[in-house]
Input
Amino acid sequence: MLSFSVTEIVDNFQLAPSTVSHHLQRLRRCGLVDVQRAGKERLYRLRLDNLRKSVGQFYDSLNLIDAATERVREREASQ
Output
């Protein structure tokens, strides 16, 4: 997996460096990116294992919401 500096990420997403740093810090705290020092720079890399797990949990939550919404609709339609 490739690692990217904040500068490289800023260049690719056209966001302010402070915005990118802020989001990377949050992603790191959530375990979705790893950070590694390389001289004065910090290099960030996605943790695909944790990202897949988080996306899977989000998908499961959406399915639960969808099922609950369908039950409410069915209940309302039968009244």
Summary: Strands lie at 4-5, 33-38, 41-46.
